[in-house]
Structures
1.
Amino acid sequence: MARAVSNRRKLIVTLIAWTIGLAIFFPILWTFLTSFKTEAEAIASPPSLFLFDWTTENYAEVQSRSNYSLHFANSVIISLGSTLLGLLIAIPAAWSMAFVPGKHTKDILMWMLSTKMLPPVGVLIPIYLMFRDTGLLDTRMGLVLVLTLINLPIIVWMLYTYFKEIPVDILEAARMDGATLWSEIIYVLTPMAVPGIASTLLLNVILAWNEAFWTLNLTAAKAAPLTAFIASYSSPEGLFYAKLSAASTMAIAPILILGWFSQKQLVRGLTFGAVK
Amino acid sequence: MATAHSRSAARLMMSPAVILLLGWMIVPLSMTIYFSFLRYNLLSPGTEAWTGFDNYRYFLTDPAFFDALGNTLVLVLGVLVITVIGGILLGLLLDQPFFGQGIVRILVIAPFFVMPTVSALVWKNMFMNPVNGLFAYLATAVGLEPFDFLSHAPLASIILIVSWQWLPFATLILLTALQSLDQEQLEAAEMDGAGPVNRFTFIMLPHLGRAITVVILIQTIFLLSVFAEILVTTNGGPGTATTNLTYLVYVQSLLQFDVGGGSAGGIVAVILANIVAIFLMRMIGKNLDA
């Protein structure tokens, strides 16, 4: 039985919801708009929302002054690299936990989760010193390794909750029909697992892209991803609002778009399956 | 139907993940514990010496530690109160039928995807700056003195920035939980004469209880480690006004090069986080049986 909702009420809710939604989104919109202003217009009083001379010079300026594309590439390589490496390690693990659970599977899962609760400052110094001594400081390789490890528990957990939903009956039917372990994995399991793996990949790229503890502490000029590059605007010279906005817009746009596609997975991944 | 063969195969498939995480957990953590008992400064290498609990004594009696502990608590609790209450209200609102539901939902969750350094710098400069910020303009427009947020209310400003980042997370999870509520139960209650307040208190809130707990616990884990937002806005200041435990350990170890003291601080942070973690693990563990 659908609840009868008066149109009047629906209109009022629409008005309130849109007002709040736009207010929450406003800082992002404002950053986007400011990125197309000149520096003078960016601090003009009164500020103008849309009526200004739109320019793209900030985008060119940010690139020419600071080699923006290098940092963008670092972000892409580090977030994708750590996610793919994580998936490579986690898929077999999650697979075996979901389909061949042993006595200790649950304990292992809980323990993996507990590693995620280790505050990063608890291991900051040893990691920093190890990186310094092995030459991994300010390298993409080093960050890929660290981010793989910190996101590995989330990857295993997300995959596990997805794999759990694949009905075991189908596997048994395939086995009855004489499927070998390999053909079972390739033809039966993989097609059903792909959506789960894709969502896991998406969420972890987002998390790695925005990670801002290790990226800030373990990189300098060479391997700095966008999180660390943007941080350099905390001590700027001269007017910089428009350039900060341009750099920020480029840094958040790709992940904002990915994020909107992964709303549902976000809930599941970040609550370790506790809320679906 | 697991055979002995498939069991050993399973163990083999699991081992890389287990071994890596075990190494990640044990090796650096035991090094931190070891360092925390040493007098060890990176500026004077070769003078490391065993000092027992001295580092802990210094760290735990340092006034900066109590400031940092207090700031950490205020930051975590402040953000939790704002995001949980805000999240419930927003969840209730977005659960109603209205035009453009999908779009508003997208607008509301957007801040969660903004990297911490961007959101902190955008808020600091373009909104909270006392000269050029939008808030300063709005204040003068209505005849008020512009307020210098990050100097006069630094911790509250950081709470605002971090809340803006986490409100979407709370909203999304609470909305998801609300949508799984049985509509017939609500209608039955309505027919029995329960008003909106009673329906919320006796049906929705108990149903949300679990999701609220999850939001609180998961956010606490992340909020205990807020770092980038502080680094790019206030550098922990003025004084120690916005220094939380994470930032204090960072200052001690990577800015003052005091490895021993920083390690002791790190271990204190680990212990505090573990207390929270125990509750979270129980919650999620229960769900695993269900």
Note: Residues 63-95 of chain B form the longest helix (33 residues).
2.
Amino acid sequence: MPRIPVQLAPFVRAPNEALLLLTSTLDASASWLLCRFLCDALSPDRDEQQKDAKKVLLVSWLRDYDFWKQEVRKSTGLDLGGLRAQRKFAFVDGLSALFLADEVEKPRGLQQLPARPIPAKGPPGLHTLSSTSLDHASATITAALDALDPSSSTLVILDNPDILLAAVPALAPSDLTSFFLTLHTRPSVSQVLVHLQSDLALRTPSVPPQPLQIAQQNLLVKTAHMSAKVLGIRLLDTGVARDVSGVLRATVHKDSWTNIGTLGQMGDGRRGDAGLLEEKSLEVLYKVQGDGGVRVFERGAATV
Amino acid sequence: MSRPFNELQAQRHAIHLMSNLLSIRTNTSPFTLVLDDLNQRAMPFLQEMVIRGLSRNVKVILVSFEGTRIHPAVRQVPGWSARTGREILKGVEQAMSDHKESLVIIDNMYDTVVMKGIDITELFNLVVLKFASTLVGVYHTDMFVQPSASGTDAYAPQLLEILKYLATSIITCRSLSHVLAAKAARERSLPEPTFGMATGAEGIVQDLNANDPRGIVLEAEFRRKSGRPESETYFLRRAVTTDYHQPLQGRPFGTLKQEFVTLLRQHPAYSNTTATGVGGAAGNEMETSFNLALTDKQKAARENVVLPYFDAQKQEGGEGGRILYDMGEEDDFDEEEDEI
């Protein structure tokens, strides 16, 4: 039995070498989809000839390792602990110690902190962020990437880095997007998936507009402009339904600065119509079941 | 000023203007401002410019804030990693210095001016006056302007206003399916639909019909040297390989065979009077689970009903204002009505 429903496959498959954006709202969490991304990249039965990422680095600012471990095991059956030992998976914890650095590190002096990431304690593949500075995050992520198996490329998942906008008032959205791009320039990284919140309350300006709303909107919009694919998760527009958890929308943007020269033929003049499912914008409904499984279906095909 | 053209000449003139802009003819438009949003990104337009530029041996320089992996024929000045605006300007100058004619594309004007603090006139002087080249700047209209913390700029004009003031051409990018939907709504005197983030719906970032694969609609305003503006709306379809000649030795792209940008009103889907938009403006009927239309039998029965005024017409109005009404069982005749 495939761990990923067939209908979901075009969503989690992404153009190689691309930056992706995943947005979610408070009511419609995206953790189930992130687990599928993990599963798609990490599952051992992947075709060997494919060049896609086969390792994952997950950086989470809002959820800790235990959450992801349980969630991934429940929904896809993968054992993150084992994958960590094989150096196929690494986790950077941005939640547990993010604001505790001062207390822990003061006796040793703050000077060495940004340059030297804290070495992982215990088993390999677990790293902890202890500062909100992006330099520190970069250094820690670099260390985590270097520790991974060098044979294939890596998918980097950044889970809710937008929390930093709220935590660090001096941080501009463009600093964060630069941070994403810097990660993406590393040769071992093939894809970067950024997960941001798209709740209206966070990004629609009130009167007078709050700086955080403007920053969130600008971060979201700019990251969307940079991305080759935008995946959005939201509730049903008509409200809550018992047999539908939410709506998943994928919009693609095929033109990028890398493929300027790749022109279509006259025959397939409307490439979008004849294109692969992975290259089309589409929308489906999904239902996350109690056992962690997920059902994906077209609109109007809900009942079984 | 009177327009001596007929329709065909006007069309040819308008397409010529756009063709010059796309092919980066010298002195056509030193500073082109491209306004885009998530519903239609500027990429197809820029791509066309880059291909035509490179095919004519114009050097293309991209000051990038939003991409790292760039086609090798395009010289990149990484704006995202540079610490200061000074570094970016130096990079641009260096990149331009070894070539006669260049096209400088900036993929995010907001970051250039506000975040990196580059003075727009300084940039203009460098690219346009010193090197006599073309500057193209992209501005995302769905980004908000962050007010400065000190509030000193509260009375200063917004960046977008300044850019519009300086630009010699302004291109606004729209998705073809959105333009068609808006037109369909207009023809029915309905409010124009909104798309993507503008709908204000929770969680929606991009519209499903954004970045139409058929092509891009460009609303252009050209400012002539005389100061006279000319506006026109164009449709630029997706380029295909047969649009270009084989590339010459050492060049990445071949030159254009024949101009394929058209006016939007020449596009069959737009000029068609029964254009149906995806916004659903054409399907004006109520969406219900039951059928509101009539069957043939019902239609026939309906046509057979003789309505009261047909009776009245037959009698040639001779009876004045008699009310043709037969009292039913449940009616009771009330005489006292007039006495109140």
Note: Chain A touches chain B through 62 residues (CB under 8 Å).
3.
Amino acid sequence: MAHGPDLSLSIARLTFGGEVLYKDFHLNVAGGEVVALIGPSGVGKTTLLRILAGVETGFDGLALVDGHPAPLAPVPGLVFQDARLLPWLSCADNLRAVRPDVSNEVVAQALAATGLVDVQDKWPRQLSGGMQRRLGLARALLVNPRLMLLDEPFVSLDRVVVRELQALVTDLIVQSGATAVLVSHDPQDAARLAHRVVIIAGRPVQIVADLALDALPAQRSRTQIIAYEDRIETAMVESAL
Amino acid sequence: MSPALDPRPVAPRPKGEAWLGWASFLLMIGLWGAAALAVNSRFLPAPWTVIAHISWLTNEAHLLPDFAVTLGRAALGFVTAMVLGTLIGIALGRSRLVDRLFLNWVVVGMNLPAIVIAILCFIWLGLNDKALILAVVLNKTPLVITNIRQGVLSFDPAFDELARAYRLSRGQTFRLIHAPQLVPYLLTAARTGLSLVWKIVLVFEVLGSDSGVGFRVSLFFQFFDLKGILAYTLVFVAIVMVLEHVAISPLERRLLKWRTDQT
């Protein structure tokens, strides 16, 4: 299976509201790697994801996706923390919005892959919070992404739904071989999904810990997950977060 | 997210209560009839007299041509103002420079008395349809601009970010993301605009035209023909109600189905 793209992010300087958010910041992600970016709320994690998605371009530096500047790279599969569904489009049309050329079968397959059945003609508001996140995930899958960018995809959901979605995301990334960057403030997300955990903090933001988690995400036992979670939490505490 | 786009469901009007609207209408006619019986019919003709008079005006006089002329003028003025107002409103909402340069013009346009605009148009262009329609457009356009500008300013930037992340083209972004957010503002502009256009077309017809409903009503006024005035008014109200219930409300229900659909 072909791996997803290598990522290379280098920010010389990025300011926000007069404050220097990033300065001399570098992050590399190998193709097919799942990296969790962990840090406190408001530190600037989503900003990194927006740069990699090619949405944020107002900074001194360079974001390369397989050697291409991020805005010119193939469309990433971006999953937002608020699902960000278009309320005036049916669920099926929300998917078609990002790939107008796909057939009904492909839309149905993307929905089925995320566990959504008989929702094509429903409006997004008629879905539960968990189902809306699944629909956001199905939309990301529809562009056949080689790069998945996940912005707090499990926040504000109940624990059972979070577990289901974490398993689903892990399966989908393993199946596609995509490179993935997951932004979260929760060590548990990283312990379950990531190959590598990058903890960021401070002003300007710096990488304060870079941890490799050995076991493959899909094969992790409960004990390993708990151990990784402890390890990440300890690193966060030691980094005075 | 702007209140117009709030995805929380809006309770649809219960179907069983439609009769209340008709009952209210019949009550209005009943009160009118009772008042007509109580006072001199010269000052307030009864509804049945007026309805019979409508039939006579239709068959023996100029009711149909008068309404055709007025409706044509109103439709032309309305469509032109909606198109112009929408384009200018989008330009003002999207460009801070254009907004800074021209917003005061819109404010002036909103507050210029309609009658002044009409008189100026009649002086400059003569007492003709061109002047009348231009006056209607100049009166109505600022209102559309204001509505549409407000709609553009309330676009949710989160959806623009979605469009950029998924590399949607400008056309796709407008069709899938911007146009649906403008719909409630367009509907408001259309509804308020339609009522305004009716009124000002009639006033301008009184002022400087030799045809149309306004012109005819002014003739009725000169002859103190209350029956004629009320007959034209009743037909006018009927047309407005038909437009509301046959065109605007169904269109609104269709375009905003996502807010009310319970299935």
Note: Chain A is about 35% helix and 25% strand.
